[in-house]
């Protein structure tokens, strides 16, 4: 049994092309039916405004699979803590015995979530883009922009958030990080109207993007909604997409943007919707022409967790890192 | 973050009246609607004959709650490993931050499962009993007999298992452990006909107990079935019970004995079924008269896991045990 700390994981597991590639392989496995992925388990801690999700996926042929526990406790800001936390564990797919605990406090989730955004853009965004728009100013707003840089060259970022102050901090940090201009704009509309590719990274309960702002050729990745009551895009945005992609339809129709489009009757279950793994496995094409409007709805899947946890494990073990705990005792004792 | 090993946990957490009492409180909380307990998450690893279950329950007012991962990999015997394994973790119910990992390899599950059996017997078994019957010769067959001793005095155990050799080992070990006679018998029928209280602890897919063997006053606890395809009691056994109890009806009608009784139409959903927490909270009575046949169907619940994990945490921390891992780094880095 190995224990890896957040500190070690941050030092040695980066958001790079290799991380992107393992997550992409995860989606391909999913599309090719080599993954067992049960529905997300969720515990609500109503009296503390908190929730804990458990995700998992077993990929056939892999020696281990991840179980991830991630929490969101939305009163934490009152005591100066981030809302998100959690850990991943790796279980042997041969014996069921736990092999490693990755005390990442959500770091690996940030990486695998940003990777999915970049993968969506790789297949759906126009090849040549100038301006990227980001809505939301939290850590995913940062990771998503950084990940996008791995698959697209762009010269400018437009940032909008409810707090202008946080948007300014974002602009300062990210222009240094990316080495390009990052401009604060004063509305989501200004972001959408002026960007080639837009990423929404908010916990919004009411849509932040209206369909009337869309323009030909735009790509939007909405990664914020992962619960029934969350929504970042007007349902009409999905209806206007010439290419509509989900990480998994099963999850998006319960927890993502798709859910609202179905609920409102703007899309029927017969509407052509593509899963991200169909793009990565080349079963389906991504963007079909320059003027197409494309939308990707991401809810976050267990197969991404297994992919990134296996990648992290390999990175750590080959460096001889991690705390090893040996503890074997007879089965019936006491 | 604390890490506790199986070795430490076995040394300091015992199957005793205190453990029984915390599990009993867990069932009471469940009956009094102070528990959020989502359905069990399950991953099947078909190509390895394995399965992993995740269980959890948040009890209002408790500072932490458990998430438990337990595996059953049924080819493990080929490489000399036990089929079961797993761990528990404790999550803060205030902040969602993981607080402890209990690397118990299923030990705490054994304790809380046996405790539930003893609780069932406490309310359902006749007060004065002479002979206890056990079917199955694995570790739960041992823990259940030991737990029963905490609530009932008995002079003899009858043991039956498919392997006579394993039954003999059981008899030898348990007669030393309990200080009473433990006799190997040659059939499940001999166990049932000659025992006041019977515990079934098998992974049987076909019933091991027939209704025609029942006699007035018998109590049966069936703790083996925890999956759709498992069954230890003929459905008619449940129909003959004057008092039929489940750990939770929601789980038993999916995964327990109850499921088969409903499926076969031997019981309707209007049949009076009591939950164990209704007994512990005194909302309902247990055994109502000496001649009554009583049956308890146990599938194992997340609230037992939270109860035993909190108990174990307290036992360990007050002794200053456990490995403490400190690891705090800024939220956005890299």
Automatic annotation (TrEMBL), chains A, B:
InterPro entries: NAD(P)-bd_dom_sf, ODC_Mu_crystall, ODC_N. Pfam families: OCD_Mu_crystall (PF02423). NCBIfam families: PRK08291.1. This is Cyclodeaminase. It comes from Fictibacillus terranigra.
